[in-house]
Amino acid sequence: MTPRQKRLTWILLGVGLVAAAVGLVLFALKNNVNLYFTPTQVYHNEAPQGRSFRIGGMVEEGSVKRDSDGLTVRFRITDTAREMTVVYKGILPDLFKEGKGVVAQGKLDSDNVFMAEEVLAKHDENYMPPEASDAINKAEAAKSSSGTTPSATYPAAK
Questions:
Q1: Rounded to an integer, what distance in angstroms lies between the CA atom of residue 115 and that of residue 3?
Q2: pLDDT tens digits, 33-76
Q3: CB-side exposure of 77: number of CA atoms within 13 Å?
């Protein structure tokens, strides 16, 4: 081999190793990403089946029900267009209240009930993740174009 061929071999080997490392990192990250969906998106089957994801919206007034075991809580979240039942077994955050924003992480079961592994309540009355704000505003726009009365527009995070 000439020196030029040796140098080209080392360069190609280095590029191949970097490509393999990037591929492995991307593959590992793909399995750990938790995407965010709204109840409307879940209704339209946009959420992954059999994989963990996050769902967010407002806790529907009067929907919080506690089971007799003291830990299992059932509630409904809404994006003002659709509602979804969430079941969570554990201690809810102090800021969890009806009519307030919430994000839950978990999976859908076979009955389209969201089985939450974690529930996060928003930290103050003015904050809402930009994705949740956009989704709620889109749902409001769709609702108003269908002839129903729209409610408030939610401000995005700053």
A1: 62
A2: 667 888 988 888 888 888 888 998 889 999 999 988 888 999 99
A3: 34
Q: What is the 3-state secondary structure (H, E, C) of the chain?
A: CCHHHHHHHHHHHHHHHHHHHHHHHHHHHHHHCCCEECHHHHHCCCCCCCCCEEEEEEECCCCCEECCCCCEEEEEEECCCCEEEEEEECCCCCCCCCCCEEEEEEEECCCCCEEEEEEEECCCCCCCCHHHHHHHHHHHHHHHHCCCCCCCCCCCCC
Q: What is the pLDDT of residues 87-134, one digit of tens each?
A: 999 888 888 888 888 999 999 888 889 999 999 886 655 566 677 777
CA atoms within 13 A on the CB side of 48: 14
The CA–CA distances, whole Å, from 52 to 29, 49, 65, 135, 145 equal 14, 8, 24, 20, 33
Q: Which residue has the tokens 């994801």?
A: 53
Residues 88, 119 contacting (CB under 8 angstroms): yes
Q: What integer pLDDT is reported at residue 9 of this predicted model?
A: 94
pTM for the structure as a whole: 0.62
